[in-house]
Amino acid sequence: HEAKRNGQSYMVFHPDMKKELYENIILENDLRHAIERNELVLYYQPQVNSHTGKIFGVEALIRWGHSEKGMISPEKFIPIAEESGLIVPIGKWVLEQACQQMKEWHNEGLPLIRVSVNLSLRQFFQDDLIDTVANALKTSGLDPKFLELEITESMTMNVDRTIIMLKKLKNLGVRIAIDDFGTGYSSLSYLHQFPIDQLKIDQSFIRNLQIDSQNEAIVETIISMAHHLRLELIAEGVETKDQMEFLHQFQCNGIQGFLISKPLPAEELAQLIKSSDSIKKVCSI
Ligand code: C2E
Ligand code: MG
Ligand code: MG
Ligand code: MG
Question: Start and end of every EAL domain (predicted)?
Fold first, then answer.
């Protein structure tokens, strides 16, 4: 959309771009008040071992219940939160809320599963991230081993800095996962230097299983690499039994996706865990 006239460049706004820009400014303004108005809520999606049919963790996924616009997807407002810096207070709220909820579930006698929280780029580069995580753990009383932080490959470009940051986080006793694995430029040669616990195979690879044989080869390679590096694995976006069977065959046992359950409000997730026979049925191969 950049045009040049007389050697000067200027931006040409398509009417749609103008509309989107305008909408985003409104959204950003509303987002400023979303926390205090209690409009943000965490949904939880189970992570299941396809061998045992047991839930071993949940991923916390944020939702914004906007007073007029209804539910807004994180795909839409996380980028706005990132750009405006609002991701810092929002990310802090997510960490606190997720730890508190999991501790409550443990107190209520639910199985001792863990909760995964997504970190954004800006959060990962925030100096006080360590304090924020430590505080969320301390305030909630959650044992750090039940908290997992998800970062993406794009955050690991500065290798030295990533190693320092991850070591500090690991010192708190939390787990680290690489989310959307395979989609970014991860420096494979550095992967083994990062103190990480888990890789999450991106859903784009899972979607194309049994459609594209080259894609299958990639998934097999990621699985075998994870096994060699002794990393735990989760396949994201598992929607069909065929996909689960394929993964099972290559010993990728951690699965997350609509086949098991979509992300659920806390109350419904707790019910699902209590009636976990239904999950065992889905997993029986
Ligand atoms: P993600 O961390 O990779 O989360 C997985 C996304 O895939 C979620 O979308 C989930 O609902 C969706 N999903 C799960 N299983 C399936 C499936 O079987 N099929 C399909 N088609 N989709 C599936 P969601 O909840 O809309 O979140 C989108 C992204 O927004 C997340 O991707 C994450 O990057 C970001 N996000 C969500 N919550 C937070 C948060 O609290 N903080 C930050 N920084 N980012 C968040
Ligand atoms: Mg994630
Ligand atoms: Mg992902
Ligand atoms: Mg994603």
Answer: 24-277
Size of the chain, expressed as the number of residues it contains: 285
Give pLDDT, residue 11: 65
Q: Whose CA is nearest to atom 19 of ligand 1?
A: 237
**CB 232 less than 6 A from any atom of ligand 1:** no
DSSP state of 119: P
Q: How far is CA 176 from the centre of its chain?
A: 11
Which residues are CB-contacts of 246 (< 8 A; sequence separation ≥ 6)? 209, 210, 216, 219
Return residues with CB closer than 5 A to ligand 4 (ion).
180
CB 233 within 8 A of CB 269: no
Distance between CA 150 and CA 190 in Å, rounded?
17
Contacts of 197 (CB under 8 A, 6+ apart): 148, 175, 176, 177, 231, 232
d(CA 41, CA 89): 14
Helix residue ranges per DSSP H, 141-260: 159-171, 188-191, 203-207, 213-228, 241-249
Structure tokens, 32: 């400023």
- pLDDT for the residue 88: 94
Cβ of 202 less than 6 Å from ligand 1: no
Say how far apart CA 133 and CA 27 lie, in whole Å.
Answer: 27
150 Cα nearest atom in ligand 1:
2
The pLDDT of residue 3? 53
pLDDT in tens, 189-218: 788 899 999 999 999 999 988 888 888 999
N-to-C CA span, the chain? 52
Residue located nearest, by CA, to atom 4 of ligand 1? 61
All residue ranges of the chain with pLDDT < 70 are: 1-13, 187, 285
